[in-house]
Amino acid sequence: MGTSTLPDALFGSIQYKPITSSRRHHDPIQFFAVKSHSTIYRRRSGGKRVLFADACLCKPRHVVLSSMDDSTEALTDFLDDGDDNSLGRGKVVGIDDNELLASRKALSDAQARNETIEKERDQLLEKLARSEAKQKEYLSTIMHDKDLAISELEAAKALFNRKLEESVEEKFNLESKLVLAKEDAVELAVQVEKFAEIAFQQATSHILEDAQLRVSAAETSAAEAAFQIEEQLRTGSEGAITYVLQQSKDAIEKALAVAESAGDHTTNAMAAFVDNMDQVDEIISVQSQNLKLSNTVNDLESQLLVYRNEIDRLKLELKQARKEAKAYELHANDVEKLLLEFQESSRKAALQQEEEIKSSLERMRKDATEKKKAASKAFKLELGRMKAAIEAAKETTRSQDEAYMRRCEALQRSLRAAEAASKTWRQRAEMAAYLLLRKSSSEEVDEEAIYCVNGGRIDFLMDDDSQKWRLLTDGPRRPTPEWMARRIRSIRPRFPPRKTHVPEVMTSGFKTLDLPKPDEVWSIAQEKLKEGDALVEHVIEKEVIEKKRKALERALQRKTVKWQRTPEETKLESGTGTGREIVFQGFNWESWRRQWYLELANKAADLSRCGITAVWLPPPTESVAPQGYMPSDLYNLNSAYGSLEELRSCIEEMHHQDLLALGDIVLNHRCAHKQSPNGVWNIFGGKLAWGPEAIVCDDPNFQGRGNPSSGDIFHAAPNIDHSQEFVREDIKKWLNWLRNDVGFDGWRLDFVRGFSGGYIKEYIEASNPAFSIGEYWDSLAYEGGNLCYNQDAHRQRIVNWINATVGSSSAFDVTTKGILHSALHNQYWRLIDPQGKPTGVMGWWPSRAVTFLENHDTGSTQGHWPFPRDKLTQGYAYILTHPGTPVIFYDHFYDFGIRDIINELIEARRRAGIHCRSNLKIYHANNDGYVAQIGDSLVMKLGHLNWNPSKEVHLDGTWQKFVDKGPEYQIWLRQ
């Protein structure tokens, strides 16, 4: 609209009176108050006019007022509606006093109403400014959230792609493993067939050889018997005949000699008879000798008859021996027939076994084929689900982008609408202020001349309707449509559901990840330092935020480990576990006073997040002492720590958090339930109702009737005789019950010094624990009250016990604990032996050394051998970075305020990949400090020694300081 100048006469009758609005952030609003009896027009930007006709003028003249901007009012145009006469020729009409009073009263009311409107307008403008600021802040927050969400979705997309690649690679690995397994199965079947054939041949050959040996032995024995009988007959008959012949010959020779001598005598006698008759007596004597000789011959004949009878008897015996030999021969024929029948049956059994092996191989092939099909099907399903998840993630990303764009557009539209509405409301408020503040003391408004071309907004503003006042106060609102709210609520990622079909889970090889909630991740990721004046506050806040992020990183790392781990990670040995165990002693000496199993179950998730792998639980059995180390009824697990159901629930929670549950087992002694007739407590009750025969005989207090003890005597309770077979069988059944029914995974064995380690080996082989630790605790060597440097004898005794178990159990490294008591007081030279190795069991057998600083006996409320309180962090820095299996004590972790330090050391051990067999090289060990490299990726320093791996020539690579506790300890990791 153009601007025209007003005549001087008009300016003579118009008084300029500026009126300043009380609005903030705007220029003062100025109005013209016109005293002339003329008609004034107010022109809007759209060209609409409001006419106020002066009844006292003969011809109406018009002055048009227009708004130049949001803050000022000025005269812009002057128009004449049909008369060229100047304004100076208007007539002045008199006004009545009553009308003037009424006008003044109306004016005062209008002024009061105007003040109210001004206040309301100021409030409205303040609210409008605040709403604009909030809208801008909300817009910036939305844009930031959008960028953050896009980055998170990109990261999720990259993670999905990486997981997909890993799954494809794993599928190929599984297929190759399946092919190798199939080949191994075929080779195994061939070997089984060969072994069966060899075994059959060996069995039949052994049987044939045995039968032939038996037959040959029978024949040999029969031949030997016949030969012996014949030899006896021959020797007997030959001897008898020889003897008879010799006797006969001798007798005949004697008789002949006698006869010759008699003949000679007779001849001589006959010759001399004539000469001398005195020879008659000699003839008579010769006759008597002949009679004697005849008697001798008769005796010889009778003896010969006796010998003939003996020969007949021997012939009968020979005949009987031949019959027995024939019987032996028949028996040998029967054995040969049985052997042939056995060979036939063995051949048939071998054929049947071969058929069974072939059928089993066929079943194995079918099962392998079915498993392969099921695995491929499961993999395809999983791949399809992952693809669907990726598509869903992409669709979600697009939907979120579209939703964000729509929300941004809606916000922009609402901002534009709000700006236009605020401008409109400002203009209306200015118009209302102008109309209400206009002085009309000498004017009379022609009601009929007021017409509205703006939709009646002036009348609308002045109405008392509550809805109109609410609109005036709050402005127009645009609520969020329901469809938009539903769309916003429906935007969430769609991932594959968890598998509930057990065979599908077992064959697929995949496991749904149980990741932290996005809100938790975002809240930690978005944490920033608060504004403060003190630098210390910034440092503390930064450390807190870094600890939270490290804890989240550890949790994510543990949750995203593949379900099918490598064999070296999953292989469990009773002496070492997986080799990467970190044990937590989950009780102290006073834990029995509370419902301990319930409390410990609630801490399982926290321990798992911190990197603990095994939890050592208190003794579970009924006990005379509440701590559990004086057991009575081994099968009663309702102890002071809780009931059997609570124990099982606690162990289940440990397993749910991927933790091993180690039971504290007391096998050396047991408290009796009854007294013997002589008043000695040596009769046990419960399911294992033993008597004095189960107690060692050299236990001086309990009158045992067993064998002598194979170790040291525990004098507070009856010592069990493990050499008794029934005792060992009962203990094996009890340990298997604890493993299979209650759920324990391994053992902590109490007071193993009381009996031989060979029995421990037998118990471990029977119960097959995942991890086993023995408590072999005796005193170190001291001289003059000071700890000796050489502790080889002490650690040799522990190693000897481990050797007795054939390495099936590890043992607490009491030697290292005792040496650390003194070494950490600026005597670090104690940590290296003459061979350059650690001075404890760790130096000789690290895989079986379980290192610790305190337990329920040395610390807690007993305090038999407490570790120096000010050296705890150094001690944990030593055992958590060195080989062996470290143990963390409950009080240190939860009560001593060093939990974050221990978590940091566990993280360093995990990142460096340290395990129980890691290599160790000690570089320095003197009064100033100790430096060692463990594995390939970690170097640690204790004490005040000035040392840095980056300055060492033999330590190549880039080393970054991971932990820096100044003179206490420092840890570097290789990049």
UniProtKB/TrEMBL annotation:
Its cofactor is Ca(2+). It comes from the Eukaryota. One of its GO terms (biological process) is carbohydrate metabolic process. The keyword RNA-binding does not apply. One of its GO terms (molecular function) is alpha-amylase activity. It catalyses: Endohydrolysis of (1->4)-alpha-D-glucosidic linkages in polysaccharides containing three or more (1->4)-alpha-linked D-glucose units. Residues 581-909 form the Glycosyl hydrolase family 13 catalytic domain. It comes from Anisodus tanguticus. Keywords: Carbohydrate metabolism, Coiled coil, Glycosidase, Hydrolase. Its EC number is 3.2.1.1. Residues 910-961 form the Alpha-amylase C-terminal beta-sheet domain. PANTHER family: ALPHA-AMYLASE (PTHR43447). The keyword Cytoplasm does not apply. Residues 100-170, 290-378, 535-562 form a coiled coil. Pfam families: Alpha-amyl_C2 (PF07821), Alpha-amylase (PF00128). It is an enzyme of class 3 (hydrolase). Gene3D superfamilies: Glycosidases, Golgi alpha-mannosidase II. Belongs to the glycosyl hydrolase 13 family. This is alpha-amylase.
